[in-house]
Amino acid sequence: MVLGLDPDPAALGPEAGAGSDPGERAADAVTEHCAALIAAAGPACVAVKLQLACFERLGAAGWDAAARTVAAARDAGLLAIADGKRGDVPVTAAAYGQALVGTTETPWGDVSGLGADAFTANPLLGGDALEPLIGAAAAAGAGIFVLVRTSNPGAADLLDLPAPDRPLHERLAEIVAERAGRLAGESGLSGVGAVVGATEPRYLPRMRELMPSAVFLLPGVGAQGGRPEDLAPAWGDHRASALVAASRSIASAGDPAAAAEALRTRVWEAAGGEQGLP
Questions:
Q1: Please, are residues 152 and 197 in contact by the beta-carbon 8 Å criterion?
Q2: Contact status, residue 175 vs residue 211, Cβ threshold 8 Å
Q3: Residue-wise over 39-69: b if at least 16 C-beta within 10 A, else e?
Q4: Residue 128 pairs with which residues in a beta bridge?
Q5: Can you tell me the distance from the alpha carbon of 130 to that of 148, in angstroms, rounded to the nearest whole number?
Q6: If you ran DSSP here, which 8-state letter would residue 105 be given?
Q7: Which runs of consecutive H residues, i.e. helices, occur in the chain?
């Protein structure tokens, strides 16, 4: 399971944070909030997913808060996924890869980026724009989750349209599958994964058929209406892997630790854990 971190500084108490600069104080409060959630819910999770926009809106201090949150996740033994849905022409895509998982060469020495373990990417600019992002992930030993069929209702406006003889999301799934070998692991799974929304489980059997070695990142459980009990096809024959992400349903709970553990149990059962599967 993945703990989604979508911090809203406006919802944090005015006593949070320290210092006089609003940006730095908000960033400190966000960092403390995320660290508390990691401490509480982390034991039920394998990773955290940072919604980068929620950090970046705080300016330079927000980027520092994201880096500190990645470090807190690492200290807790969790992976960190940077959810920024990056995608651009190849030269800019390469810069995004450096920013999220790599380093940048300068005359004064290499500068480290965020240092995430994986990130989300938008493939709608095509394969040549995706290649630098996959290359950055390969160089860093990181993973990439490509948007295939997202969880928001408006996804149907585009991703379900014929392209030309099948839904666009199926063509995007094929793009993921075609690149799976670039980040193939010993287990048979690939570091080229796919974002597939938990709010439309009817697509999961076909998605798993098209992307047998992709790790699925499944957002939309909880506040958006997705249910773990509907997600069994994401694991296919139980040799595949899927990560269920939940944000508000845990962060807003009175007891985040209990909420995370309860959701973890439901996910485990949906994946076949009650049959002794790993």
A1: yes
A2: no
A3: ebbbebbebbbbbbebbeebeebbbbbbbbb
A4: none
A5: 13
A6: -
A7: 22-41, 52-56, 60-75, 90-101, 127-140, 168-178, 204-210, 248-251, 256-270
Q: How far is Cα 206 from Cα 159, in angstroms, rounded to an integer?
A: 14
Please choose, from the candidates 162, 130, 160, the residue with its C-alpha nearest in 3D space to the C-alpha of residue 146: 130
All residues at 6 or more sequence positions from 119 whose CB lies less than 8 Å from its CB, including other chains = 81, 82, 83, 84, 86, 100, 101, 133, 137, 142, 143, 144, 145
Tens digit of each residue's pLDDT (9 = 90 or more) over 26-67:
999 999 999 999 999 999 999 999 999 999 999 999 999 999
85 is an active site residue: yes
The confidence score (pLDDT) of residue 142 equals: 98
- Active-site annotation holder among 85, 169, 179, 266: 85
Q: How many CB atoms lie within 10 A of CB 174?
A: 14
φ/ψ region of 80 (left if φ > 0, alpha if ψ in -120 to 50, else beta) reads beta
